[in-house]
Design a protein that fits this description.
The structure is a single chain. This protein is α+β, with helices and mostly antiparallel strands. It has two domains: 36 residues; 125 residues. Helix content is 19%, strand content 39%. The chain has two helices and eight strands, in the order αββββββββα. It has an eight-stranded antiparallel barrel with strand order 1-2-3-4-5-6-7-8. The longest helix has 20 residues. The model has no long low-confidence stretch (mean pLDDT 83).
Length: 183
């Protein structure tokens, strides 16, 4: 019995790691230099302080790609870093880079100050020229913590180990002899 309890405790300690990935809902609106409206909404997946995933819609098109940190954005060698903070400003001056279905453009959303953001759009891979690139004004940018309905895998594993330990303890319990007498 002591072995079973020690094994259950060791297994629980192994799987009881903190949740690594967190999800944040985002949305932004703004306009291009020619006053064409832009808007996006979706979800950032954040591990530590790095955006590791993105999904959502940009002007009705599906966001399908997250560019890797270090991706060159423009002719002056600015690079995306995908760093995220849960408080404003949520992004750094290098920002997050994403792509949408059906084009070879890189969309770079970045911070320009305390609560100010911009969206740079350029051809990818970078041609070394800024021709065709646009720097768009982001008038609103909101971020909120997404609440998950499904527990983390470590939580499920810990719960299953606990049920197994309880079941094992009940199964190994000594039998109590019961005598029934009739008068």
């Amino acid at each position: 019995m002591k072995t079973l309890i020690a094994l259950a405790a060791a297994s629980t300690a192994l799987v009881a790691v903190p949740a690594l990935a967190q999800s944040y809902n985002f949305s932004f609106t703004g306009s291009t230099p020619t006053s064409t409206p832009i808007s996006a909404s979706g979800t950032f997946t954040v591990t530590g302080s790095t955006i590791t995933g993105i999904s959502g819609q940009y002007n009705g098109a599906t966001i399908d790609q997250l560019y890797a940190p270090g991706t060159v954005v423009d002719s002056v060698n600015d690079k995306i870093d995908n760093v995220f903070s849960s408080t404003a400003p949520y992004l750094t001056g290098n920002g997050v880079g994403f792509g949408i279905v059906g084009n070879n453009l890189l969309y770079n959303l970045y911070s320009t100050g305390a609560n100010s953001y911009a969206l740079y759009i350029a051809t990818y891979p970078s041609t070394g020229s800024t021709a065709g690139s646009t720097n768009n004004t982001v008038s609103t940018f909101t971020v909120s913590r997404a609440t998950g309905a499904v527990p983390e895998p470590a939580t499920w594993a810990m719960m299953l180990v606990g049920f197994g330990a309880v079941g094992g303890a009940l199964r190994r319990r000594s039998k109590v002899a019961t005598t029934v007498r009739y008068a």
